[in-house]
Amino acid sequence: MSSTLDRWSPYALALLRIVTALLFMEHGTQKLFGFPAPPEGGTPPLLSLFGIGAILELVGGLLILVGLLTRPVAFVLAGEMAVAYWMFHAPQSLYPALNGGDASVLFCFVFLLLVFTGPGALSIDGARQPAGPRHSWER
User: Considering the domain boundaries, does residue 136 fall inside one?
Assistant: First the structure.
């Protein structure tokens, strides 16, 4: 049973990467274009802290989605989410359930996981590498 599950690990990781990227990009499109709904305070100026965050969310999310430059992009996005949590959520309360920072914490740690694991299957990064095992679970 374990070997069967191990064989599917790169695909499960890819699914986590893709779903995370789609959710993350939605935050960027909301701030930049007001889609699917505008943020409470309206769309931020492009060169503001929120505007730069929105660009990172959209462009970084797109790169994570396709699995291009996954590790360095995931590192930057994990940092963005750590900063978002400590700047905007933690001052209200240290507890994510009380300060609304659940998503920031989860995004941060999923991106941190991608820094260490890489993109999994179905990625441009994977297609650009020579064939052979890339992770311990693929041996």
Answer: no
Q: Measured between alpha carbons, how far is 95 from 9 in angstroms, rounded to an integer?
A: 32
Expressed as residue numbers, the domain containing 57 is: 2-130
* Residue 139 forms part of a structural domain: no
Q: What is the pLDDT of residues 99-117, one digit of tens each?
A: 999 999 999 999 999 999 9
Q: What confidence tens digit (pLDDT) does each residue in 33-80 have?
A: 999 999 988 999 999 999 999 999 999 999 999 999 999 999 999 999
Residues 74 and 44: their CA atoms lie apart, in Å, by 24
Cβ within 8 Å of residue 19, ≥6 positions away? none
Domain count for the chain, please give it. 1
